[in-house]
């Protein structure tokens, strides 16, 4: 019986016309139902819709009937449903809508400038709160790990150091060599005009040791290890592996985060020292080939230009940068929500936040070092 197609009959026997529906009323019969009801609405007379013969009605047909009823009310033509079965009545009530209600989906409104500024400000505040809470949990985990060092996953530290350090040596050295070479070339054009060729050693040496080597190394590590940490921990979060660690009695801060911080703090200063050397070597090539300096003259001038405080300042920056990369990457990774898309969003936001804070911290260090004459 329920497989009978929709049948529509019109009866004028009573005070007003009656449309009788029989059989099944589904989305496939929507055009037939639409044409029949619209024809009655076009007549301008009130009518009834007899649903006694309906054996089945789906949600699409019920929504269509309610939409037609509202359309009739707007035209001044009323029609009502009569003799509907309990199932059909429930379905029609589910899609019922008052004439003055906004039942359709409202058009999305583009947020204004102040609205966007407010949202971004609240998001920044929320992110800072999460980061401070994360750092607080990490400090507490560090305190507990001192009491119980076995709770830290020390076995993963060598592998993490290899991935962040040894595997990244080629790209780190190449980029810093090119930076030193570029600095030397840019300086050579100006120094040669004034006969100050020897000072290329001062410019390249100080720039690489104090600024470029720590910053460029940190940027490369952020793109490699920072993104990897955020993606790894984010995948573990959405796959509920982090929850499984809690269930097994492991603290994710000590088991996942501390080894990554230790690994970066151990390898980033070493990468920075190598970056200083290759960057200075890039300047040496320019000085010898472009300005006619000797290697000995370049080396002697470099020794006079660079002091121990310059070297220690650059290495101190690299340690702070390493901690910053690990903290932000791990925090964003463990805060991941929403499956694969959430992992991608967390990785992107982690890299962007790391790069922003690296530049800000570098600017603060430069200001403080210059203020105190370091």
Number of structural units classed as domains: 2
Mean pLDDT value: 84
Strand order of the largest sheet: 1-2-3-4
The number of helices is 12
Order of helices and strands: EEHEHEHHHHHHHHHH
Question: What is the gyration radius calculated from CA atoms?
Answer: 36 Å
Strand content: 5-15%
Tally of DSSP β-strands: 4
Q: Which class of secondary structure composition applies to the elements?
A: alpha/beta
Describe the structure.
This protein is α/β, with parallel strands linked by helices. It folds into 2 domains: 88 residues, Transcription Regulator spoIIAA; 230 residues, no CATH class. Helix content is 70%, strand content 7%. It contains 12 helices and 4 strands, in the order ββαβαβαααααααααα. It has a 4-stranded mixed β-sheet. α1 links the parallel β2 and β3. α7 packs across α10, α7 packs parallel to α11 and α11 packs antiparallel against α12. The radius of gyration is 36 Å and the shape is elongated. The model has no long low-confidence stretch (mean pLDDT 84).
Structure summarized in a few sentences:
By secondary structure, this protein is α/β, with parallel strands linked by helices. Helix content is 70%, strand content 7%.
Characteristics of this structure?
4 strands, Transcription Regulator spoIIAA, 374 residues, alpha/beta, 2 domains, 12 helices
Task: Please describe the topology of this protein.
Elements: E1 7-11, E2 18-25, H1 30-43, E3 47-57, H2 59-75, E4 79-82, H3 86-94, H4 113-147, H5 157-164, H6 169-193, H7 200-238, H8 241-247, H9 252-289, H10 295-305, H11 308-334, H12 339-371
Parallel strand pairs: 2-3, 3-4
Antiparallel strand pairs: 1-2
């Amino acid at each position: 019986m329920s497989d009978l197609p929709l049948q529509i009959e019109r009866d004028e026997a009573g005070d007003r016309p009656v449309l009788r529906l029989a059989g099944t009323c589904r989305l496939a019969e929507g055009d037939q139902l639409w044409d029949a009801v619209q024809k009655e609405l076009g007549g301008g007379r009130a009518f009834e819709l007899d649903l006694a013969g309906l054996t089945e009605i789906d949600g699409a047909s019920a929504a269509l009937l309610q939409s037609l009823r509202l359309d009739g009310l707007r035209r001044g033509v009323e029609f009502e449903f009569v003799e509907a079965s309990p199932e059909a009545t429930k379905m029609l009530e589910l899609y019922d809508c008052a004439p003055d209600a906004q039942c359709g989906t409202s058009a999305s409104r583009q947020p204004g400038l102040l609205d966007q500024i407010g949202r971004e400000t609240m998001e920044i505040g929320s992110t800072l709160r999460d980061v401070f809470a994360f750092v607080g949990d990490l400090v507490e985990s560090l305190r507990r790990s001192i009491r119980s060092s076995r709770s830290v996953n020390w076995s993963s530290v060598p592998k993490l150091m290899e991935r962040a350090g040894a595997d990244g040596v080629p790209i780190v050295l190449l980029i810093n060599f090119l930076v030193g070479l570029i600095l030397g070339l840019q300086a050579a054009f100006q120094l040669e005009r004034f006969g100050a060729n020897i000072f290329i050693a001062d410019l390249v040496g100080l720039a690489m040791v104090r600024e470029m080597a720590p910053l460029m190394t940190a940027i490369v590590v952020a793109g490699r290890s920072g993104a990897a940490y955020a993606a790894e921990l984010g995948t573990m979060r959405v796959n509920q592996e982090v929850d499984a660690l809690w269930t097994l009695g492991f603290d994710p801060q000590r088991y996942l985060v501390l080894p990554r911080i230790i690994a970066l703090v151990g390898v980033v200063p070493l990468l920075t020292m190598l970056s200083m050397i290759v960057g200075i070597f890039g300047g040496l090539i320019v000085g010898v080939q472009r300005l006619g300096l000797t290697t000995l003259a370049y080396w002697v001038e470099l020794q006079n230009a660079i002091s121990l405080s310059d070297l220690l300042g650059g290495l101190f920056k690299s340690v702070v940068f390493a901690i910053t990369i690990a903290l932000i990457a791990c925090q964003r990774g463990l805060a991941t929500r929403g499956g694969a898309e959430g992992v991608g969003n967390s990785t992107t936001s982690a890299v962007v936040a790391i790069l922003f804070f690296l530049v800000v911290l570098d600017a603060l260090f430069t200001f403080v070092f210059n203020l105190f004459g370091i």
